[in-house]
Amino acid sequence: MSVSVKDVAAAASVSVGTVSNVLNRPDKVAPATVARVHAAIEKLGFVRNDAARQLRAGRSRSIGLIVLDSANPFFAEVARGAEERAALDGISILLGNSDQNPVRESAYLDLFREQRVNGVLLTPHDLDNAVLLNAGIPLVLVDGELPGGQVPSVAVDDVEGGYLAVAHLLELGRRRIAFVGGPLSIRQVADRLAGARRALAEVPGASLEVIELEALTVLRGSEAGERIARLPAEERPDAVFAANDLLAVGVLQGAAIIGGIRVPDDLAIIGYDDIDFAQSTVVPLSSVRQPANDIGRTAVDLLFAALADPGAAPQHVRFRPELVVRASTAGAPA
Ligand code: RIB
User: 226 CA to middle of ligand 1, Å?
Assistant: First the structure.
């Protein structure tokens, strides 16, 4: 049975983070603690992760991470999880932001190849097989999965997540639902809409209007919220499912703060991701939670596994989404 970082931490009566610091940033740790940890490492015969050791052989001690939008707290938490996991093995994360732009995504893949990173964790702007199957560097897809499963992936079941969101609105008695999303070329957005449609099909008489925006940002959400607020009451949706929390925050701002619509009385709003400040908005937002930190950690584990055994079949992890109900969808039907 191999000795883990946790075993060393327990033996030295320190945290796993302290063990990681002793291994990677000993200058940040008290000398007595460094000595105690090294004594535990020697006593237990701890050996760093084999894949991590291979990572360092002849290549940079780093992994590339390319996200769709570095301003989105969801991806910041994914990056944090990846960094925490990689640091346990002395590996750093280099972050790139594609901004949903294929040219930028391709440029970062080129850069990370030149930097000789050991692999790249990628949230693709779309699931273009040709690019992803010929990346020329070990890849793990974050938040996406190729239909043929040829590349390791970690994601959340976004169809189930979209279903949870709209089923919740329908249970409130809402019947005129607007889906406020980003480009439907982004698989996460398309899957959430597919789940929404599946929930809607179970309630005769309910309607779903699709509002496709160019980006999943607070600004675009606020503009959509204002447009919704300006509609005559009889034409206005009574609920919004926003494809992520940034859009939901924007819809809340545009419809309620600027447009004067009452949330949830006139308009229930639910988002997706459950980012930290979804609970801090003027009307705390209901959302569909993704385990962002776990997604980041798991992506690194999948890359280590692929590097340790290149011939093995690609691994896939799919997390379940979780409905989180707050004030923006609480209360009686419209
Ligand atoms: O980037 C768009 C969305 O996809 C993010 O908010 C997150 O939900 C990701 O899955």
Answer: 23
Q: Please report the pLDDT score of residue 333 as a whole number.
A: 56
* Whether 91 and 165 share a structural domain: no
Ligand 1: does its nearest atom lie under 6 Å from the Cβ of 69?
Answer: yes
- In the reported structure, the alpha carbon of residue 181 is separated from the centroid of ligand 1 by a whole-number distance in angstroms of 10
Residue 38 belongs to a domain = yes
Same domain, 172 and 270: yes
Q: Whose CA is nearest to atom 1 of ligand 1?
A: 68
How far apart are the C-alpha atoms of 319 and 305, rounded to whole Å? 18
Lowest mean pLDDT among 36-45, 111-120, 133-142: 36-45
Residues 100 and 12 in one domain: no
Tell whether ligand 1 has an atom less than 6 A from the beta carbon of residue 238: no
Identify whether residues 209 and 277 lie together within a single domain: yes
In a shared domain, residues 81 and 95? yes
Give CA separation, 139 vs 53, 74, 98, 173, in Å: 18, 20, 16, 44
Nearest Cα to 178, choosing from 196, 161, 163, 191? 196
Give yes or no: residues 30 and 113 share one domain.
Answer: no
SS3 category, 225:
helix
Write out pLDDT tens, residues 19-35.
877 876 677 788 889 88
Does 209 have pLDDT greater than 90?
yes
Query: What is the pLDDT at residue 15?
Result: 83
**Span from the CA of 23 to the centroid of ligand 1 (angstroms):** 34
Domain at 238, CATH number: 3.40.50.2300
- Mean of all residue pLDDT scores within the chain: 91
Lowest mean pLDDT among 50-64, 153-167, 237-251: 50-64
Range of the domain at 73: 61-156+292-320
